[in-house]
Amino acid sequence: MGRAWPHDTIGSLKRTQFPGREQHVRLIYQGQLLGDDTQTLGSLHLPPNCLLHCHVPTREGPPHPPCPPGSEPGPSGLAVGSLLLPLLLWDCQIQYRPFFPLTATLGLAGFTLLPSLLAFAMFRP
Question: Which of 21, 89, 92, 106 is 20 to 30 A from 45 (CA-CA)?
């Protein structure tokens, strides 16, 4: 990017540096978006020789083509949390064995088996 002067506005800076794409360019200074195109650089109290970052999207338009009705993508993959919960419960069962009678341990075994079977079924070639 070239030089700018305190009387330049955000909008004029975008127009001179990115002609034809100024509507899509975002200027950023120290993590803050400079969104008001009518503001002058002097009114923002930017120090001399400061660095402005610019974001220029590579694609214009919607980020993804719209899905046909009825074919919306569903969740893909298996949530890690569904595998960690049985592990946490088994840890509690081992550490606090007196609080887990036989029926609770059998229920925990069944609860562990279900996510395991789902994981194997989803990732089977």
Answer: 21
Determine contact, residues 56/74, Cβ cutoff 8 Å.
Answer: no
Residue 35 domain flag? yes
Beta bridge partners of 53: 28
Domain span at residue 108 reads: 80-122
Residue 97 sits at the vertex; the CA angle it makes with 94 and 101, to the nearest 5 degrees, is: 125
**Cα-Cα-Cα-Cα dihedral of 35, 40, 46, 47, to 10°?**
150
CATH code where residue 31 lies: 3.10.20.90
- Reported as a single tens digit per residue, the pLDDT across 36-59 is 889 988 888 888 888 888 888 876
Please give the torsion angle defined by the CA atoms of residues 5, 44, 33 and 36, in that order, rounded to the nearest 10 degrees: -80
Spatial distance between the Cα atoms of 114 and 116, rounded to a whole number of angstroms: 5
